[in-house]
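Weekly structure sync, notes
Attendees: PL (lead), two postdocs, one rotation student
Agenda item 3: pending single-chain targets
PL asked that the sequence for the first pending target be pasted directly into the notes so everyone works from the same version. It is reproduced below exactly as submitted, 464 residues in total.
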Amino acid sequence: MVVGVLPMRSLFCWLMISWTVAGVVLCLSLDAIGAQGERSTSRPLVHVAQVDSLIHPASAEFIVQTLGAAGDDGVDLVVLMLRTPGGLVDSTRDINTAIIESHVPVAVFVGPSGARAASAGFLITIAADIAAMAPGTHIGAAHPVAGNGQSMDATMAEKATSDIAAYARSLAGQRGRNVELAEKAVIDSESFTEVEALNAVPPLIDLVASDINQLLETLNQRTVTRWDGTTEILNMDGALVEHIDMNWRQRLLSAIAHPQIAVLLFSLGTLGLTIELWSPGAILPGIVGGLSLLLAFFAFQILPVNYVGLLLVLFGLLLLVFEIITTSFGALALGGAISMVLGLVMLIDSPAPELQLGWAFILAILGALATVVMLLTRLGLRAQFRSAVTGSAGMLGEFGEVIDAIAPGGSGRVTTHGEIWLATARQPISVGERVRVVKIDGMTLTVLPEASPGHAEKESSHDT
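Predicted structure, written out during the meeting:
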């Protein structure tokens, strides 16, 4: 009977567990369906994505993914809260293409108060279905510059400016915004406050709002004209606002995808691995150096890096390392510094001044590396002049005790350095006397009594 009862109990337990799991899954599904039905029928959904960084591939990927997901999730409006000093033209074009092709109306809101959308941010703002600004913000200054942050030569400047100006005119004209001001922002590097942009004829933006809530209130029942000319009435009454955040990869890229951070990681990684190779077993410098180099190369994948500049920086770091381990009287260090300056100047191949390293940063990096090199060189020199403590050289000057008497010109035995040695001396030394090692010949020591005149003379010379 016991054998027959156990299977029945096991079957009953499995049935109860299965029913419980199925019930939980069914309840969750019904809740999700009910929430989706309630959202779609009663409350419009708004996705808010904040972009507070340079415009680079990581931020462009985030915006493109946000707009793509909004179309699949039935979102009624996407708000891009923008605060940026500018960025890459290619990433800007990717973002604007996603805005133009979006199935969901897109509002770009330059905020909060005190923020700006300059350069690339200006082009993104005028490309949106709805362009809004918070009080105390400004947009503009979209003139292209050379890779070193300065003005380009006449031919290149004319080409780049003409290209960006035409792009700005195209965006503003299609959106019904002020084409003249859009062109001036590129050609003359003009910037505009929210009041100037709104009061222009025709306006450069659509409205001014203090925050997201006021923006949605203003947009309620507003007619929006899309890029293809179709119109859509926004219903923002009781809108459900969901904030969309970057994933971990995009946050990591956005944090390290700044040229200064990437160069710091690259320099730290190179020095860490150098220290580990120079002093095997330190472990920590090798770990930090390896991780730093991996993160640096991760950042270089999305930055417009000039690889000639990168190689010059690496060559300069190697010269600084060789200065530590060889004697060049500063020649290697000077060559390394020159190579690093040239490499850092041309490292970032972009016309955006926000992506340039700047002389203050370059000099700070060189100063920090020079300090590290001098400290390591000083430690190396101190190690060279330090008295030996191991091997045969470490025996010279050691003291010991005679355990077998030593006759003049003869030999005996002494204990020194924790060992017993055969020893000779030019004068008789009795058992128990303290002696000092003055010479080593194979396995035989030459010793003198501890209080011998030679010893006193050497001690006096050493004190001097």
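Discussion points:
- The two ends are 103 Å apart (CA to CA).
- The mean pLDDT is 80.
Action: rotation student to compare against the earlier draft before next sync.
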